[in-house]
Amino acid sequence: MKCKILPSVALATLLFASVAEGDEWAIETADDWATNVETVSGATFTDGAVLPTGQSASISTIVYTSDQKLSARSLRIEQSPIWQNWNPIENLGPTNLADAPVLLTLGPNDYWMFGRYRATKPKRKKGQSRIAPQPFDPQPATLVGFDVPLLTTPFPNQYDAPGGLQPGRGGYHAWQSRDMKNWVHHGPVTEGFSKWVTSAEWVDGKAYIYYDFPNDQDPHVYVDDDLFDGMPGKNMGLAVKDPSHGSDAGFIRDLEGKMHVIIEDWTPISANKRSWDSPLAGHAVSPNGINDFRFLDPPVDHRTNPTGKIGTYKHPHWMKEDPENYPTNVAEYEIHHPEQEAYGDWAAICIGGQYYLFGDYDPVGGHQMSVGWFTAPSINEPFTWCGNIGNGHPDPDIAFAEGQFYLATQQNTDFVSPGPWVETVEARVGVDTDNDRAIDQWTDWNEVKEHYDYIPGFSKQINRTPATMDASELPAGFGFRVQLRLTDSTDNPSKPIIDRMTLVFAN
């Protein structure tokens, strides 16, 4: 493919800088890319980013000049936050975990999964008598990373700890893993009335397990300081008094310790006709995650045109589960036109300050459900649509474990990702040492990538180390040029989209 030559850049349009004016050369806006890139092959510029059009691309900047000698220190590359780097895997967790999966990472090699405990039964063919389950004789077992007595179970890669032998209570159970492959059952964490668990967070050594009561209504919370004992923690009752119908809420604790909830808001839609999802999401924040939640602006608002007309629908659980507070199953909503996109069953994660919301996606038209997700640089800003994946009603949750990101769903397939960064990006920096606007020395080509890690004390806040290349080996000079080579190395739709490039100079 021939290189595309951008409009010629006269010396007068070259950037001039001095140490006093700043210590970096940043390219991030559409105008920056148009002004500072000299040649590009196999890529285009869209929305202030460089997007490869094929499997490979190359970019070469102009020579950034200065009237004083500068010393390059490092080159930092940032990609688009649109996270599409996902790959399908077999379903996560225990084979007998039922209902919507909830994930919670407590740190390296300490991963938890919550769900209903399902006793599987042998299948029978039509016309056959019921097949009696075969007796199972548990045997003592050992598993790397676990120092409690374990017993084998009839389920593959699953063991019972002492807490797992406690009788079920009709709610969610807890499983723990050190490797996301083998799971140890620790028993019940909620009860029958609190079986609609939607989310979990980790606060100062305690698990906060959130559940709807009644179904699709106000979030309540357990505080559990011992996930091993096979007993629910302390039921703190109502956490979020939501003025709207709908819930399936996702909770995330920010780095300041405040708890945020993203919650369905059914006021603009007949939710029963749209998988109990909505174009509108609510956002509230609390200082402690237990009470005093204050509602803020909606993070997702894809409502169409309001008509001013009011419609009604029925919910099957409200009167049955909580007749004192819900004497009717009938709910009102404002009719909107045209048909609206619908989202819900929210789950959140934050990577280096960039927030992501995952949830159900029920699109207009055919209503083929999948996982959809949004992103924003702050949880207090409107979120932008990223994409969707999978097939079926997902009720997803997301966690960081084993150096990767796991997306668990109710679909037949779950997903894993190395992170928002997409491979492969190679870079080199050149320097003009004699002020003739020609490069005299280059660094070697280096592959750069982001890295992710746990933040102690937080489950859903993930540390991000930027993709950085050391350029300090270069001598000081009057001009600098950067070249990139981009290769789409994935089998999924993601591409290495460059959002920002910064050459940092020594002070």
Q: Describe it for me?
A:
- With 507 residues, this protein is mostly beta strands.
- The chain contains two helices and 43 strands.
- Strands 1, 2, 4, 7, 8, 36, 37, 38 and 42 form a nine-stranded mixed beta sheet that branches.
- Strand 36 and strand 37 form a beta hairpin.
- It starts with a strand and ends with a strand.
Shape verdict: globular
Using only C-alpha atoms, the radius of gyration works out to 27 Å
C-alpha end-to-end distance = 40 Å
- Assess the beta-strand content as a share of residues: over 45%
In round numbers, the mean pLDDT is: 93
Largest sheet composition: 9 strands, mixed
Low-confidence stretches: 1-21
- Quick one: how many beta strands? 43
| Secondary structural class | mainly beta
Tally the helices: 2
| Helix content percent band | under 10%
Task: Summarize the entry for a quick read.
The protein is mainly β and about 500 residues long.
Short descriptors:
9-stranded mixed beta sheet, mainly beta, 7-stranded mixed beta sheet, globular, 43 strands
Task: List the SSEs and their pairings.
Elements: E1 4-5, E2 16-17, E3 24-27, H1 30-36, E4 37-41, E5 43-46, E6 49-52, E7 56-61, E8 64-70, E9 72-79, E10 87-89, E11 97-107, E12 110-117, E13 140-141, E14 150-152, E15 158-160, E16 172-177, E17 183-188, E18 196-203, E19 206-212, E20 219-224, E21 234-238, E22 250-253, E23 259-265, E24 280-286, E25 294-295, E26 300-301, E27 305-314, H2 318-321, E28 330-337, E29 342-351, E30 354-362, E31 370-376, E32 384-389, E33 397-401, E34 404-408, E35 414-417, E36 425-432, E37 441-442, E38 446-448, E39 451-454, E40 461-465, E41 467-470, E42 477-487, E43 498-505
Parallel strand pairs: 2-8, 15-17, 29-40
Antiparallel strand pairs: 1-4, 3-43, 4-7, 5-6, 7-42, 8-42, 9-41, 9-43, 10-35, 11-12, 12-16, 13-14, 14-15, 16-17, 18-19, 19-20, 20-21, 22-23, 23-24, 24-25, 24-26, 27-28, 29-30, 30-31, 31-32, 33-34, 34-35, 36-37, 36-38, 36-42, 39-40
